[in-house]
Amino acid sequence: MAKLKLSPIANDKPVKVTVELPASLHRDLIAYAEILGRESGQPQTDPVRLIVPMLARFIATDRGFAKAKQGRLVHGETR
């Protein structure tokens, strides 16, 4: 493997992803958005806007994932 002077460049661009959600999950996102708006005293947000922070929170707090990810980094895997 070549020793390059540059490290990998971080891809900061948002990536557009299209997913199909089960109807029950979509209803829960709508309900969550309604409750969040009511609890925060702000207008109800678009339920789709909840997906990114929910995924980020889930991944950030998943200890098993953090441990496995750290193990991959220790062993030189980056994908």
Give the arrangement of secondary structure elements.
Blueprint: H1 23-40, H2 51-61, H3 63-74
Question: What does this molecule look like?
Answer:
The chain has 79 residues and is mainly α. The protein has a domain at 23-74. 52% of the residues lie in helices and 0% in strands. It contains three helices and no strands. The protein has helices at residues 23-40, 51-61, 63-74. The longest helix is centred in the middle third of the chain and has 18 residues, at 23-40.
Structural class: mainly alpha
Q: N-to-C SSE series?
A: HHH
Q: Characterize the largest beta sheet: strand count, sense, and whether it forms a barrel.
A: none
Poorly predicted parts? none
Return Rg in Å. Answer: 18 Å
Helix count, DSSP H or I runs of 4 or more residues: 3
Shape from CA axes?
A: elongated
In which range does the helix fraction lie? 40-55%
Distance between the termini: 16 Å
* Beta-strand fraction estimate: under 5%
Number of DSSP strand runs? 0
- Average pLDDT metric: 83
